[in-house]
Design goal:
The chain contains four helices and three strands; from the N terminus they run E-E-H-H-E-H-H. By secondary structure, it is an alpha+beta fold. Strand 1 and strand 2 form a beta hairpin.
């Protein structure tokens, strides 16, 4: 396969969410969805990292983390409601989804691993 450089690189990646199991005390449940990410350019990534380094409060750092997630997440699949009906992706649904810390951590980890060149693993 020949390499074709592009200005924008998007890719689907499995995201593993480990959250407290509502039925089993002290246990975690694992769920997986797929997220369409956009890889940030080096310049944009460095700019966001420098911005983060200058933040002083947890509130500022959390807001910055949400900003980065909103910037790199473009779509999702395998996200359903209690009845199994697909939940369409939107900025509003993403904002609601990432209010839970384990959702943010799963997305952040999957993106970081992809940028570090690590293969996606089920149950990571």
């Amino acid at each position: 396969m020949k390499f074709i450089p592009t200005a924008q690189r998007t890719f689907w990646r499995p995201v593993t969410i480990k959250s407290p199991d509502p039925e089993k005390s002290g246990q975690l449940q694992t769920e997986t969805l797929e997220v369409l990410f956009e890889a940030l350019s080096l310049d944009e990534g460095v700019a966001l990292d420098e911005e983060l380094a200058g933040l002083r409060t947890d509130k500022e750092r959390s807001a910055h983390e949400l900003k980065r997630i909103r910037r790199v997440v473009l779509d999702w699949r395998d996200v359903v409601d209690e009845k199994g009906k697909a939940i369409p992706f939107s900025a509003e649904m993403l904002d609601a989804f990432i209010q839970m810390p384990w959702h943010r951590m799963g997305i952040y980890r999957a993106y970081h691993d992809a940028m570090a060149g690590q293969e996606a693993r089920t149950g990571n």
